[in-house]
Amino acid sequence: MLPHTALVLAFSILLSLPVIVILGPTVLTQSHLHLPFSPQDELDDLSLFTLASTFHHHAPPQHKPSRIFQFSYQTKPKPKIAFLFLTNTDLHFAPIWNLFFHDQPTNLYNIYIHKDPSVNLTRPVEGVFKNRFIPSKKTARASPTLISATRRLLAHALLDDPDNAYFALLSQHCIPLHSFPYVYRSLFFSTTFDSPGLTRPTQTHRSFIEILTHAPRLWNRYIARGRFAMLPEVKYEDFRVGSQFFTLTRPHALLVVRDRALWRKFRSPCYKKDECYPEEHYFPTLLSMMDPEGCTNYTLTHVNWTGTKGGHPYTYKPQEVSVELISRLRESNFSESYLFARKFTPDCLQPLLWNFSEDRRICS
Ligand SMILES: *[C@@H]1O[C@H](CO)[C@@H](O)[C@H](O)[C@H]1NC(C)=O
Ligand SMILES: *[C@@H]1O[C@H](CO)[C@@H](O)[C@H](O)[C@H]1NC(C)=O
Ligand SMILES: *[C@@H]1O[C@H](CO)[C@@H](O)[C@H](O)[C@H]1NC(C)=O
Ligand SMILES: *[C@@H]1O[C@H](CO)[C@@H](O)[C@H](O)[C@H]1NC(C)=O
């Protein structure tokens, strides 16, 4: 070894000492439990979330029913739905979503996509998904990376457009069950759709997120990081479960990107992998702790958990797709109808597309 190389080596070891001291414990725990987080990811997220939670658009006052307000109400921009797609494969159902958004006014919606950068994906060269990708990081099933990816989507959508009023989280396996105008009307104007007894527009909008207090194996999920790991922030009485796919109001989206305390708990790796689905607990727990009355406690995305295998819901195959299936998937005990559904195998595209076109023809 040349003398100066040795010197450089010694010097760089010396330089890296403080880094090891500062980051050592985290890095060691992480590599030990295979947590796919780097300190850099965490820092990037923190600056994005801080920006999103402190940035104020110059929006008109929302809750002042003065004459001026009533006048400006007429000219106020319309609220938009931010469609957030979380994916780690191609967006198989892009043609269906293209049809869903076809001819719809672009001032009523926005689309944002978080795609795992470690997977190869065919970039859409046309249609509604073109150029809608946000800076993304690696995701893994049953890990807190899915929480981070969702929070990144919310933060980008919050920053991007002050008119984004509802934030609907979807995946590449989701399809719409109704037309865009139906979805828009349901979220913003329907008086029967949301909680009965409250009439709009005086009512503030609620988030459609499943929040369950009782579920099999909830205790096992709670102690998956250790018996006392969630304390004192999250007591067992506060621990909730629900579907990963939700539709949040803007105040709730803000609340989620502002959170630091619960994230510090939920980002910890689990000892038991088969009891660890942080994304199914973090959002319902956080929102039920912060604003239980602001949540409907049910989701708008239908999923069939009958005969579940390995934490995966039932996945429909092409031969099952029919007009009857779509009608059955819309049926809900909670609201007037489900708006979205999952999961379908990619080769369901053709039958779904045919159904969707037929439906549009009949309904228009
Ligand atoms: C993605 O594609 C590139 C180039 O085609 C290839 O080199 C790489 O191995 C692929 N990565 C994965 C994860 O398939
Ligand atoms: C949702 O559930 C919580 C309990 O977790 C309850 O306090 C709240 O009232 C429920 N919200 C509605 C709209 O029923
Ligand atoms: C849900 O999945 C089961 C199979 O696990 C199937 O028999 C049932 O028909 C499905 N329900 C609906 C509404 O499609
Ligand atoms: C509605 O609730 C009933 C009774 O709990 C249940 O049998 C049925 O499957 C539910 N329907 C849907 C569409 O969830």
Automatic annotation (TrEMBL):
<dbReference type="Pfam" id="PF02485">
    <property type="entry name" value="Branch"/>
</dbReference>
<dbReference type="GO" id="GO:0016757">
    <property type="term" value="F:glycosyltransferase activity"/>
</dbReference>
<keyword id="KW-0325">Glycoprotein</keyword>
<protein>
    <recommendedName>
        <fullName>Glycosyltransferase</fullName>
    </recommendedName>
</protein>
<dbReference type="InterPro" id="IPR044174">
    <property type="entry name" value="BC10-like"/>
</dbReference>
<dbReference type="InterPro" id="IPR003406">
    <property type="entry name" value="Glyco_trans_14"/>
</dbReference>
<keyword id="KW-0328">Glycosyltransferase</keyword>
<keyword id="KW-0472">Membrane</keyword>
<keyword id="KW-0808">Transferase</keyword>
<dbReference type="GO" id="GO:0016020">
    <property type="term" value="C:membrane"/>
</dbReference>
